[in-house]
């Protein structure tokens, strides 16, 4: 009984001694590592955090806000000239195309008389012949004292009227094909008739407009139309061109109704001379609706946080937090209202989302 008990006590003592030796060894190893690498011993809390940022200087200058509208180049209403026909006729050929530039007296269309007009011409010829015969008969009777001077004068007057009517119909071109020529030089804005079509007297055949009398019809939202005024300058840019040309125009008319087709308010702009715009061309118009002078920063410099707007600047290598109010704004820039900001101060535009007030910063500072 004593021998087994002694063996058990010896085994327990041996295990305890091995455990104490292992713990002692680990402590010495950890102490050695701490001596070789002090940063691993809990000194991370004292390491300095530096953020990389990019800044631009705050500028004091004018900022504007604008609205953009789209529309087309049209003929100015006051310059449209309708080419009409004075008698009922039928269109044989159209000799021009829409948008074509024509010179004065250049042929536009070829017409021919209708049957009813030819009948009028035949009646006029018969009336002239009958009046001539009647005058000859009255002359003979007057020579024989069988007719009065009053009868002779009446016969002469009847002949004159018949001849005048016949000459007028011939001058109008009734009786054969007739060319309609341009009364003035310009651009063919619209062709209002087609081959074979019967046109009544005074009916329009086509419209001419001077190349200098064009305007741009733009559509503005009703709430934006009240922010612009007649005589205001507008920047016009043709849409779809390889190179965007900026053309200056002036507002000539702001309509006081909503266009039922577009649901927009039509605004007419007269472009500068020699603009090179073409009828029907699609154009973008940029209207400036407000402007102010103040401290201006890129949009990326201001961060919305809750119901506040934050902006960070850099002073002596550290981030400085500013709460700002926004004035005017456009697609690229903002006007900031804050008495603690100064012109030329570097505003952070990259990395500001990670900053806190007083954080050390480094990076690219644009002068």
Overview of this protein structure:
- The chain is an alpha+beta fold and 367 residues long.
- The protein folds into three domains: 52-62 and 292-365, Beta Barrel (conserved putative lor/sdh protein from methanococcus maripaludis s2 fold); 67-76 and 211-291, Efflux pump adaptor protein, beta barrel domain (Elongation Factor Tu (Ef-tu), domain 3); 77-209, RNA polymerase II/Efflux pump adaptor protein, barrel-sandwich hybrid domain (OB fold (Dihydrolipoamide Acetyltransferase, E2P)).
- It has four helices and 21 strands.
- The chain has helices at residues 2-36, 115-143, 149-171, 222-225, and strands at residues 50-57, 59-75, 81-84, 89-94, 101-102, 107-113, 178-181, 186-191, 198-199, 204-209, 214-220, 233-238, 247-258, 265-271, 282-298, 302-305, 308-315, 318-329, 333-337, 346-350, 360-365.
- Strands 2-11-14-13-12-15 form a six-stranded antiparallel β-barrel. Strands 3-10-8-5 form a four-stranded antiparallel beta sheet, with no helix packed on it.
- Strand 13 (247-258) and strand 14 (265-271) form a beta hairpin.
- Helix 2 runs antiparallel to helix 3 (149-171).
- The radius of gyration is 47 Å and the shape is rod-shaped.
- It starts with a helix and ends with a strand.
């Amino acid at each position: 009984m004593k021998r087994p008990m002694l063996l058990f006590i010896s085994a327990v003592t041996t295990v305890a001694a091995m455990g104490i030796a292992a713990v002692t060894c680990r402590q010495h190893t950890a102490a050695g590592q701490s001596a070789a690498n002090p940063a691993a011993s809990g000194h991370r809390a004292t390491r300095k955090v530096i953020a990389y940022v990019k800044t631009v200087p705050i500028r004091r200058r004018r900022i504007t806000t604008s609205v953009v509208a789209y529309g087309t180049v049209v003929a100015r209403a006051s310059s449209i000239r309708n080419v009409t026909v004075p008698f009922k006729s039928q269109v044989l050929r159209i000799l021009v195309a829409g948008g074509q530039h024509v010179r004065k007296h250049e042929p536009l269309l070829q017409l021919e008389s209708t049957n009813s007009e030819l009948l009028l011409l035949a009646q006029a010829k018969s009336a002239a012949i009958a009046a001539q015969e009647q005058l000859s008969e009255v002359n003979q009777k007057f020579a024989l004292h069988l007719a009065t001077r009053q009868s002779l004068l009446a016969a002469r007057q009847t002949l004159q009227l018949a001849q005048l009517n016949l000459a007028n119909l011939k001058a109008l071109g009734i009786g054969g094909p007739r060319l309609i020529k341009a009364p003035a030089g310009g651009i063919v804005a619209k062709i209002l008739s087609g081959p074979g079509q019967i046109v009544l007297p005074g009916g329009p055949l086509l419209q001419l407009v001077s190349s200098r009398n064009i305007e741009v019809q733009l559509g503005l939202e009703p709430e934006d139309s009240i922010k612009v005024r007649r005589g205001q300058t507008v920047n016009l840019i043709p849409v779809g061109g390889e190179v965007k040309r900026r053309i200056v125009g002036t507002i000539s008319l702001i309509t006081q109704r909503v266009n039922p087709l577009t649901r927009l308010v039509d605004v007419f702009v007269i472009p500068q001379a020699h603009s090179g715009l073409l009828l029907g061309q699609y154009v973008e118009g940029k209207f400036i609706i407000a402007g102010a002078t103040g401290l201006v920063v890129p949009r990326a410099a201001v961060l919305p946080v809750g119901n506040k707007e934050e902006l960070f600047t850099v002073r002596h290598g550290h981030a400085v937090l500013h709460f700002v109010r926004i004035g005017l704004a456009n697609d690229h820039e903002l006007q900031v209202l804050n008495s603690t900001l100064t012109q030329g101060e570097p505003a952070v535009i990259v990395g500001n989302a990670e900053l806190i007030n007083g954080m050390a910063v480094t990076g690219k500072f644009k002068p």
